[in-house]
Amino acid sequence: MSLRISNAISVPQHLENRKLGKPKQSTAATAGVSLEKARKSASSPSRSSDPLRFELTNLNEQSISLQKRISSHQTTLSTLEDLASKVDELQTKPADSSAVQNGLQEMENLIDTSEFEGRSLLKGSGKSSSSNPDIEPVVVKDPPQIGKYKLSILGKVSNDSLQFRIEVADEPEFKKSMVTALSPATGIIEGVEVYFEEKEGTQEAELEIRSAEEGDFPVPDFQKSLENLKDSREVPEQLQREAEQTKRKIETTIDGVSQGLDQEISRFQNISNAQENIRAAVSEPRSVNSAIQALESLNTEIVKQSSNLVNLFNSSDTAKDLLE
Questions:
Q1: What is residue 43's predicted lDDT score, i.e. its pLDDT?
Q2: Nearest to 154 by CA among 213, 111, 201
Q3: Which residue in 151, 123, 119, 155 sits closest to 137, CA to CA?
Q4: Domain limits of the chain?
Q5: How far apart are CA 306 and CA 304, in angstroms?
Q6: Rounded to the nearest 5 degrees, what angle is found at the Cα of 228, between the Cα atoms of 224 and 233?
Q7: Three-state SS at 168
Q8: pLDDT per residue over 29-48, tens digit each?
Q9: Distance (Å, rounded) from C-alpha 151 to C-alpha 170?
Q10: Residues 165/153, Cβ–Cβ less than 8 Å
């Protein structure tokens, strides 16, 4: 009997026709299990346990990889919660210069020292970028709508308050606009919040949105948030506003990491179930059908994740550069 675990993500035909190229293999969405030969061999009177042992080894490797990513997500969550508590402390006494200075120093130490296996957790793993330092794209859902965008923000006084008209374009297919009185703006790019300086006049930027690599959530760069807090520490009202912005960024990032962690845990449980059934099949040939069913269930879940991933590449030709 022969079972084969494939690491290739199936790409819909319309994506192949557009020659977007294949995305790099994502450890959060490896697919799929080939079961045709397994079904034929299940009814054969002579079966060998060697192919099942091979598949068990493959699943063991995937399980180890998932355990590492689960640990990474859990460590990131814990670190973000620590950062959120320090921002809360800043907000309690924004006029106390000594308390503010101590709080900022604690934040700086946390941002500088927080790592997982040598990788910084709070200095930006998503690699999304902006040509304007006053405009920051923050991924809040992975994968986001990846691409390169031209963004224009027009701030003007209306009814004694600032309002912003935001336009984003990814020529020639993608154009969107909205009016808001708040930063960050949500919904202008799928899965992304746009943080910007609240001021009159026109602000422009070229944004590049990427998904994180190796299954990690694209955590934003909190070094920039720390700099904004330091710049506003002499004015309590401004410090309070910057702290609220930073807290919003932390909370939405926590939500995104939590969703990713739930998906990794679910997939780990599916792989564990498949491993158990294969072990039983190796020792008891009559359990082969149970092993096949377990692998088929795992394959269905993985393909579902892969379909959700590639669906986000449909609306923009500029995704080609990011996928190649």
A1: 45
A2: 201
A3: 151
A4: 128-209
A5: 5
A6: 145
A7: strand
A8: 333 444 444 444 444 433 44
A9: 9
A10: yes
Q: How far is CA 34 from the centre of its chain?
A: 28
More confident residue, 173 or 28: 173
Closest residue by Cα to residue 26 from 292, 263, 189: 263
Closest CA to 123 of 238, 208, 259, 216: 216
Q: What is the pLDDT of residues 89-145, one digit of tens each?
A: 988 888 888 999 999 999 999 999 999 988 889 987 657 889 998 999 999 988 889
Q: Which residue has the tokens 């402390």?
A: 89
How far is residue 206's CA from residue 204's CA, in Å, rounded to a whole number?
7
The widest CA-to-CA distance across the chain, in whole angstroms, is 83
Residue with tokens 């009559």: 286
The two structure tokens encoding residue 145 = 């709508």
pLDDT above 50: residue 154:
yes
Are the C-beta atoms of residues 18 and 318 closer than 8 Å to each other?
no
CA distance 224 to 126: 14
Cα distance between the two ends of the chain: 37
Q: Would you call the peptide bond into 172 cis, given omega within 30 degrees of 0 as the criterion?
A: yes
pLDDT digits (tens, 9 = 90+) for 48-90: 456 777 777 888 888 888 899 999 999 999 999 999 999 999 8
Smallest CA-to-CA distance from 152 within 194, 124, 109, 122 is with 194
- C-alpha 221/C-alpha 124 separation (Å) is 4
Measured CA to CA in angstroms, residue 117 lies from 71, 114, 176, 221 at distances of 10, 10, 40, 18
The single-letter code of the amino acid at 204 is E
| Whether residue 238 has pLDDT greater than 50 | yes
Total residues found in the chain within this entry: 324
**Assigned token pair, 80:** 């973000």
Torsion of CA 63, 69, 73, 74, to 10 degrees: 50
Report the amino acid identity of residue 26: S
CA neighbor of 192 nearest in space, from 209, 206, 205, 179: 209
